[in-house]
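look at this fold:
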Amino acid sequence: MTRDMTTGSPLRHIIFFAIPVLMGNLFQQFYNVADTLIVGRTLGLNQLAGVGSTGSLSFLVIWFCTGTCNGFAISIAQSFGGARYENLRKYLANGIQLAAIIALVVTTVVSILCRRLLVVMKTPPEIFEYAYDYIHIIFLGLPCTMLYNYSASVIRSLGDSKTPVLLLVMSSLINIVLDLLFILVFHLGVKGAALATVTAQLISGLTCVYHIYKRVPLLHIQKEDWKLKKEYTTELLRHGVPMGIRLTIIASGISILQVAVNSMGTNAVAAMTASGKIYGILSAPIMAVGQSMAPFTGQNIGARRLDRVGQGIRTAFLIEAGISLADLLISYLFGRSMLNIFVKNAPLEVIELGYKANLICTAGFVFLACVNLFPNVLQGMGFAIASMITGITEVVGRLIAARFFARWWGFTGVCLASPMAWVCTAIFAVPAYIICKKRLEKKFALQEE
């Protein structure tokens, strides 16, 4: 089912698109939450810390793949919005080939460098092998991750956010079952958790491809569409690579902070691991609204409806601001109880550190709203470089926190890193949108003359 977002109420389109994306984000979290919950409650604190210590490294690689796929889909969204269906199929076919090449290269490189990367990140000795066993399998499964992310982003670019979620729900349940099977029955430890995640991603990707083949004739590729052409590959890479780099830059900033956390000991790592899962759940609605703006903007730019882009931004930000306040209240009232879910019989220090991290992060969620809104809008408008720079500003904020705040205030300083990064991004992203909008207005005016 496709959705034309160039007409009708922006609020209706954003909500109807964001709700399935939210469900997808939550079930995506279930992949990691299931690993964390089962590992933390059945294997032990060191195994939990080992899995958790790889989070930023995993983001560093997977976010590049995810961002690239989402960037490729912008060209498809703009072609759909402008009713250029032949171009749409050519972009799809060229994107498949580029995605396959990227998946092969990235998987080979990170698999070889995996152990060295963990050393660079100062992973504590007592959890090092657990971390390696987990992340190495995750890296080997990157083609499965790429398969799902590209096929799902293509479906979403046509306005259908429901189908990827329905398929992901199924594979998420499979992931949980496989976690229990591999860990409790086959006794594979953290390797079992990683294998369950990779297998679930593969099922997600294959089911998305099957859906496209059966239900979306608009995306049926013809033989001539497979020919790689410079005009299409250049456009795809222009959108995709900066988006991938942006998310990688953001993840690199998180990796820097992970090094600081790793140096604070196992309790700090475990606290950040558990609080990170809660953060992922609480921030999911904000992420969903922000993600809805990329296809919404892309389709409306394709139809030359800049006025609707502005309407969408105002609507999305009001929704996100309300969610931010609700998240802060939830974190304040139920933060400790939520942490206890993830770590059985945890030391009091772990719970208190995790609670502090949650409170500080959720207090800055109103700035996270800007981070998730404007970069997606810039991407949908076709200004991939400007969107990428927002990632650089976010890293600058994290570097400041890692360099000064962590030294001055220890764990509290590390917790302040995310809000600091979001403030830096908001300061750049809002003016960048205004400038880019004016450029498009001039461009469209000249084309109409």
Q: What stands out?
A: The longest helix spans residues 266-302. Residues 237 and 353 are 42 Å apart (CA to CA).
